[in-house]
Design a protein that fits this description.
mainly alpha; 19 helices; 0% strand
Length: 359
């Protein structure tokens, strides 16, 4: 939500775009810490009850953000969002096989992870549009109401899900000794750093470099998000053929888009085309990264999902933080170039790691 509203929120609180980027950094840090802690603390708690509690916390966070009188209150709300993200993804993303059975687990997992690009398709542009028409506080209030609806649906429709085996902290140490898991951590770090170091500041770029009218930013982000859904489902098909090639291609697309944006991003058609390429590339990243973790630890799926969530969110926050430093010190064009260089490094790393990836 803050990505599309970054400039307007920053203006309201009289802070820079880089400082406003802390709305992405803080929840990422908290989610990275919360992912293993919440999963371990949940212990023998029914997963249905845990997911409902986390969804209630998210509703509280969104409504608090909508009425925040000062920026520090907004950051408190974002910390609560981080708690929700870390716990919800770690627990929820590994439940597909229990909800639909082994035969349909692969498709169910793809559907669950389609929520990532779908959030970009609906969340970012819809929030941007609502913020443009009625103010950014209305956008957060709308998400808070939607979250309450989702909570009611969870209570009404989700079956009891008692834990199968409580997660022990020592399992994470065992996973980190596996070569495939360490490679998954490295490639996830590089690609998520590249993406969120740049995408967090895509709205200021479109407004200051492309000179897009604020009312049209949501349309461009909608195009990006729609491309992300395409990338997600294409990756779901190509992963079975080659995980390494799929992830390398997605990194190359992100690198090309971010490196070329400062060169042709002042042209409307150029910016739209590169955003579509970027969206397709990033749409494949979450499902590829999660699959790499799962294949590297088939005996500990919930632990692998927790490690994936934690590493993803930690790098997300670091990317948003470093991107904000570059933006405040230089420009949004400079941060695009830095992100493109990082994505290029990731593509080379993934290609070189072909043999561990195949194992």
């Amino acid at each position: 939500m803050p990505i599309g509203l970054l400039t307007s929120i920053g203006s309201d609180f009289q802070i820079s775009d880089g400082t406003a980027g802390w709305m992405m950094t803080l929840p990422g840090i908290v989610a990275a810490i919360a992912a293993p802690l919440v999963t371990v603390a949940a212990g023998r708690l029914d997963r249905r009850l845990a997911l409902c509690a986390l969804m209630a916390l998210l509703a509280l966070a969104d409504l608090l953000a909508a009425v925040a009188p000062a920026y520090w209150v907004m950051l408190v709300a974002r910390i609560l969002v981080g708690l929700t993200i870390g716990g919800f993804w770690s627990i929820g993303a590994s439940l597909a096989v229990r909800l639909v059975g082994e035969k349909s687990a692969g498709r169910a997992t793809a559907v669950i992870f389609s929520a990532v690009p779908l959030g970009s398709v609906l969340g970012v542009p819809a929030g941007t549009l609502i913020g443009h028409l009625a103010g950014w506080r209305s956008a957060f209030a709308a998400v808070g109401i939607l979250t309450v609806v989702a909570l009611v649906a969870l209570v009404a429709l989700l079956p009891p899900l008692p834990p199968e085996e409580p997660l022990r902290p020592r399992v994470f140490g065992e996973l980190l000794r596996r070569t495939g898991v360490r490679v998954a951590l490295l490639v996830t770090f590089l690609i998520v750093l590249a993406h969120f170091g740049t995408y967090t500041y895509v709205t200021p770029f479109l407004q200051h470099v492309t000179h897009v009218d604020p009312g049209l930013v949501s349309v461009l982000l909608l195009a990006y998000g729609a491309a992300g859904i395409v990338g997600n489902f294409v990756a779901g098909w190509t992963i079975s053929r080659s995980l390494r090639a799929t992830l390398t291609t997605s990194a190359a697309m992100i690198a090309a888009a971010t490196l070329l944006l400062p060169l042709v991003g002042d042209w409307d058609a150029g910016a739209i085309g590169l955003l579509v390429v970027w969206g397709i590339g990033y749409g494949a990243v979450p499902v590829c990264s999660q699959t790499w973790f799962s294949r590297s630890a088939p005996h500990a799926q919930e632990a692998a999902t927790t490690l994936f969530t934690s590493s993803f969110q930690a790098t997300l926050s670091l990317g948003a933080l470093l991107g904000g430093v570059v933006v405040d010190a230089s420009s949004t064009s400079a941060v695009m170039l830095c992100g493109g260089a990082t994505a290029t490094l990731m593509a080379l790393t993934t290609w070189a790691a072909g043999r561990p990836a195949r194992r």
